[in-house]
Amino acid sequence: MTGALEWQFGGVLRTLPPMAAWGVLWVLAVAGLFLVVRLYRRTMRGLPPFARGVLTVFRAAIVLVILLCLANPVRVERRKTAASGNDALAVVVDRSASMSTPDYRGSTRLADAVRTWKRHESAAQEAFSKILYRRFSLAPSPAQSFDDAVKAGVPGNETHLFSSLRDTLATSPTAVVCLTDGLDTTTEKADDLVGEALRRGVPLYFVTGKNRARASETLNIRAISAPPKVLRKTKFTVTVLVQAGVARDGELPVGLWSGEEKLAEARLPLHAGLNTLTWPVPVTSAEAGILPLEFRAGEGDRQESASCTTRVVEHTDIDVLYYQGAFQWGYRFLLASLHGDPGFRLTAILNPALQVQGTAVPVPQTAPRDLPGSAEDLKRFQIVVLAHVFADQLSPKQQQALVDYAKNGGSVLFIAPDSQAARRFAGTPLEQMLPIIFDPPKQESPDDLAEKQFQLHMASIGGANNREDTRFANSAPQQQESPELQAFVVPDGKAAGSKLFQPGPDAPRFSEYTEVRSVKPGAEIIAVHPRDRVPGSNAPRVLVARQQFGEGFTAAMTTDLLWRWKMSLPSTSHTSEIFWQQLLLSLAQPVPGQGLRLIKTADAARVGQRVTIQVESPADLRPEVVAVSPQGVRKPVPVNAATEVGKPQLAGFVPDSEGKWEVVAGNADGDRARITLTVSTRDQTLETSNLPPDADGLRRIAEATGGALIDTEDATVFRLRAGEDRESPLKSMPLWNSSWLLALLLGVYGAELITRRLFRLL
Amino acid sequence: MSEISREQFLKLLAAGGASFFGLRAPLVAQEEKRGPLSPWARLKFTCRGGDNDDWNVHPNGDLNLIDAIRDQSTANVEKRWNVADVARLDTITRFPFLFMHGEMAPELGDTDRANLREYLLRGGFVFAEDCVRGKMRSDRSGDEFFRRMAEVELPKILPEAKLELLPNDHPVFHCFYHFNNGLPHMQGNPHGLHGMTVGGRLVSVLSPSDIHCGWVNGDKWFGTGKRLEAFKMGINIYLFAMSGNGASAVPENAPPAT
Questions:
Q1: Min CA distance, B6 vs chain A (Å)?
Q2: CATH superfamily name and code, A88-214+693-725
């Protein structure tokens, strides 16, 4: 391993070229040294020359080290590893049907890819000490030679490209070359493959094959996912997975319906080739009952649809993790507000003293002692409330855990601390997921000295004096200030807030709030300040806002925990309880799991061939499945029980006519699911539809991993590599954070102090 | 080496530089108290014979406790001695915690009692304590305030509530500091700490032991050990009230008080 050193400066020097930055540093160093000599001279007037020299050197060294720290040079280390001689190149050949289907001239994509690869093979042999061959359709298998990989066996009916490449990466090659057209007939995404390649430091190269076969278009709804149960008037996400194969770039119209009501629509962009698209749709539930959801993709004869149902319920159990930055009264009143609804289970992590966590929980043995540092540990809570926490209380790991938790479907309610403290969240992972942007801090009011003076006075006279006590007590009410309570206001033109609170006299009231500059684009404003406006924009200050973040929600509330409002209401009023319960309900994510759902196991169906449908259903309910022919004939479809716990049930039937079939499922609880199925007389699958090779997608994957798309005769890709050293990622280390520099500075500083003492200057 | 930010590093350097000149470095001074402000208030009430000057005994004791709470816990208690008049509901509902202290027997009117009832039902908390020897006008029984509160006033304020002696394993004795032997006693008759519960929620505690006087000049009056105990118990009561309905678990790493 060899090391290389570069210098990167911080602060104002960052923008300067290194030479200029060094120049500025030299000028400052000379000026500093001049000042040290000049200013120190008078102090050392009485000392002998040797002592003067020693002290001046120490002081100058301190100035120079401080200057170095201020310049913030960063040592950048590049680790290089020489080629070892054990370099192995894995050449993987896609042997699926799409690669072997001939065009009208009898040419296949595989033959074209082989031709391109042959031009590069000799360069690869020079660059790598050995080449290993593999072929795949479903899973990769080793081959003796390139010819063996290309010719042996028969083409497969599916392409598991990404999983096969991941399997190949597990054999620890130095690089991977894959001859493929980029088709992957599973729903797997390329991101996992890229991540695995980056983690292993293995570049991926692709060789594409082309031919002139005429492409036919396909459209296939793979799955529609909706939670089985949601709370009334809450937001949840319906996710649709659709595969569309097209010959040229275009758009796919999609829509989500509930009965006759269109909930959402979009036009999803398509590129030439196979597109696996995920469309998440936020949906707001209505009143309790069965909510039908139908997804439609495409237009006219080419329209496909799939439907399912979600049950909207009045109540459900909600586990809330409450974490507060400092002891405060808000917790007592929030607890009391949720006490009335047994559906809420609150686990609280209190911070009674610095470095001390207390836990207030209904079931102490299962409660975390501190905010968990992994999203997995947070998963059992539907909502995490961060009440007036401070940026330095949460480690980067805890903050990242919260981000991951929200991305994966959790909800985070952030109750902002004061403006000063909120500002310190700038640039943290937590800030990035919140729906608001904070304002710079304001000056705090000075401490009240009257109390302190009285306290000191009383201490000086023994602690007690009846006359002084009475005088102080009588004057105290005049000094007292009563905080003004101000009401939440619904933003102009928006009715979102009214779902959570009643505008007007019953609206929540607060006394303290953190100034927020704005909300992030896409965030929903629930409440704003009645009077305060953001300088310059005249927009009201935001008090409550929320947004979708990944599959979960994040919300920010910039006021206190509203305990003064609760105390101002008659004890018979439940307005405060209702507000808190509604706010948390609106954030609570649906219970995990899936209701009744039908999933196609193959991308095409043929007359006379068995069609298998995967049936996902609540364990205790046996669904009834019916296949409806294009002529309207209903055919019961038997459902085979799952062979293992957790495995899906399968339903199968044989279509006897061409056209659009429907498969409909229902159970005793009123859940319904439906999918459409196009049945043809020809064997037309994604493999045989001749979709254009996905060269752009392959190029993106290759370039992301440090490889390349090999689609030309230019054979420099591997030639350049031969004899080159491999570089690992950069490693940088700020000098000011190194122990030796700190030790040097403290050592010189200490030495100067000791020397000054020695020479009686201290 | 533990992680240190550039900002912290430069602050340390600046502090070192400031020491050259014998300056107190504000950059590394104690960090400001953080968190939402929590108020403290003394309840103003009338005592036996219409006395209006017993409720305000030794206010500096309250201020000393506020200092102790601020120093030893994360609670940002406002350094202000507020007065809440029991005759006016709007003044008492501004405070979630009321300290009621006196040596003479309180004589509350119907309005006062109704106000206190409403206050407690809204979620407020009252810490009532017998001063035993304050302005030296009690009946010398050593528990005049305590007896009147326990036998007359509290039952009239909340007839449906239960007033009972709190056991030594009650969270109020363990929510911050551990008091394995229950309430520390300064002076008077040691009846122990009593609590009043409504609907499973502790809304008020009544003390006969005058821990407040421990806050005033405990060193001289009761000795240093007692003074420390008095502060710790005061902190426990305030934090217990903040932590809700008694579901507060013991922080394992908190130091024991006794």
A1: 7
A2: von Willebrand factor, type A domain (3.40.50.410)
ipTM given for this complex = 0.83
Cα end-to-end distance, chain B, whole Å:
37
Phi, psi of A37 (to 5 degrees): -65, -45
Question: How is domain A218-264+284-314+593-680 classified at the architecture level of CATH?
Answer: Sandwich (2.60)
Q: Tell me: the pLDDT tens digits for A378-394?
A: 988 989 999 988 888 88
**What single DSSP character describes residue A442?**
-
Nearest alpha-carbon partner for A174 in A619, A626, A724, A637? A724
Structure-token match 């000599």, residue found:
A37
Same fold: A218-264+284-314+593-680 with A318-587: no
Give the C-alpha separation, A132 to A171, whole Å.
Answer: 10
What are the structure tokens assigned to A140, written together? 């990769």
* Tokens standing for residue A301: 């004869």
Q: What distance in Å separates residue B86's CA from the closest CA in chain A?
A: 13
pLDDT at A11: 61
A470: closest chain B residue by CA: B56
Q: Are A288 and A312 in contact (CB under 8 A)?
A: yes
Q: Residue A153: pLDDT above 80?
A: no
Residue (of A417, A416, A355, A327) closest to B243 by Cα position: A327
Residue B149 is classified by DSSP as I
Yes or no: say if B74 and B236 are a contact pair by the CB < 8 Å rule: no
All structural domains of chain A with their residue ranges: 2-75+732-758, 88-214+693-725, 218-264+284-314+593-680, 318-587
Are the Cβ atoms of B34 and A566 closer than 8 angstroms?
no
pLDDT, tens digit (0-9, with 9 covering 90-100), for A525-540: 889 999 888 877 788 8
* B216–A463 CB contact, under 8 Å: yes
Alpha-carbon separation of residue A120 from A117, A134, A206, A209, A398 (angstroms): 5, 17, 12, 14, 49
Q: State the DSSP H helix or E strand holding residue A357, giving kind and residue range, or none if neither.
A: strand A356-360
Phi-psi bin for B75: left (phi > 0), alpha (psi -120 to 50), beta? beta
Is A318-587 assigned to CATH 2.60.40.780? no
